[in-house]
Amino acid sequence: MAAHLKKRVYEEFSKVVQVPHEEAPAKKLRLSKPSKSAALHVDLCKASSSTDALQYLLTFSRKPVEAESVEGVVRILLEHYYKETDNSVRLKIASLLGLLSKTPGFTPDCIVDDAINTLGSESKKHLDSFTLESNIWIHSH
Predict the structure, then answer these.
(1) pLDDT tens per residue, range 75-96
(2) Which is a Gene Ontology cellular component entry for this protein (predicted)?
(3) Nearest CA-CA partner of 93 in 83, 106, 103, 102
(4) Alpha carbon distance 63, 59 (integer Å)
């Protein structure tokens, strides 16, 4: 009897059942270009001098920027503006910010606070410097 049960169990578990294979739908791939903000950030970080940075900005200004990339580009430009000491580079960044704000489909509301904070801290820095220079001049005369 045990041999008969063993044989029956073995037969049940040794059967091969084929399940029809359902083909998974093919996944569609979408090719995308690297973002303009990432490319600009890399270029500006590679700049070893203000002349290099200015050259990268000039090259960048000749390329079109899609509306969905503008916010990232503006944030990178504001970040670099704050770090930059050369006035010609800062002027080019300010010019690019003005041009980018006019991009069709871009609403500058999302970056206005960042721009105000950057420019506010910038004007405070210059005001503090001016006040210090004025005090030195007054005390020396």
Answers:
(1) 888 888 888 889 899 889 988 9
(2) integrator complex
(3) 83
(4) 7
